[in-house]
């Protein structure tokens, strides 16, 4: 595997402040096995979850998770378990949260902590074992009437929000 590094040569004269053309150097890196975190989705027992609605949400969640993983690589094999819930989020629409946290060290006598799902993503260690790591809670009316779960981004109705984009945003909270 190779990494290309770009170098700018700055002029040694202070007044000129010119930047000379960029040069590239090829640096060989050690070979590593690429690991990746994964997401697993489940649903609470709320009767508002129809089979069709579960399938739509799970499909778009998996697509959102792939976008997330392509942009934020983890070098660990953690499996972040996310449960979809129907309830009353504080903002009236949708909210996400990690269900635990973990210590990342003590600095000046203060225990520094990280959200549990982010900790598992970064370090590959699940701070709460086999329990669900995070939840995404939807208002049922918002879920059914204001989110669009189609596959063609060019056909989102004007009166709907793209469900995949909403799920991707919520992944950022956990």
Comma- or semicolon-separated keywords:
4 helices; four-stranded mixed beta sheet; two-stranded antiparallel ribbon; 25% helix; 174 residues; alpha/beta
Can you describe this structure?
The chain is an alpha/beta fold and 174 residues long. Helix content is 25%, strand content 30%. It has four helices and ten strands, in the order E-E-E-H-E-E-E-E-H-E-H-E-E-H. It has helices at 51-71, 116-123, 140-145, 163-171, and strands spanning 2-7, 23-28, 38-43, 79-86, 94-98, 101-107, 110-115, 134-138, 147-148, 161-162. It has a four-stranded mixed sheet. Strand 6 and strand 7 (110-115) form a beta hairpin. The radius of gyration is 22 Å and the shape is globular. The protein starts with a strand and ends with a helix. 23% of the residues are buried.
């Amino acid at each position: 595997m190779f990494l290309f590094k770009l170098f700018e040569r700055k002029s040694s004269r202070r007044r000129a402040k010119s930047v000379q053309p960029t040069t590239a150097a090829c640096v060989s890196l050690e070979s590593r096995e690429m690991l990746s975190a994964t997401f697993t989705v489940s649903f609470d027992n709320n009767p508002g979850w129809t089979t069709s609605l579960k399938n739509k949400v799970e499909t778009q969640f998996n697509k959102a998770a792939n976008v997330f993983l392509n942009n934020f690589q983890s070098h660990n094999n953690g499996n972040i378990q996310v449960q979809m819930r129907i309830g009353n989020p504080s903002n009236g629409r949708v909210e996400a949260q990690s269900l635990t946290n973990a210590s990342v060290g003590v600095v000046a006598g203060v225990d520094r902590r990280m959200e549990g799902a982010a900790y598992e993503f970064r370090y590959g260690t699940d701070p709460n074992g086999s329990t669900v790591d995070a939840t995404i809670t939807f208002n049922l009316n918002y879920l059914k009437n204001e989110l669009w779960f189609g596959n063609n981004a060019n056909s989102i109705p004007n009166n709907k929000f793209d469900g995949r984009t909403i799920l991707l945003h919520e992944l950022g909270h956990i």
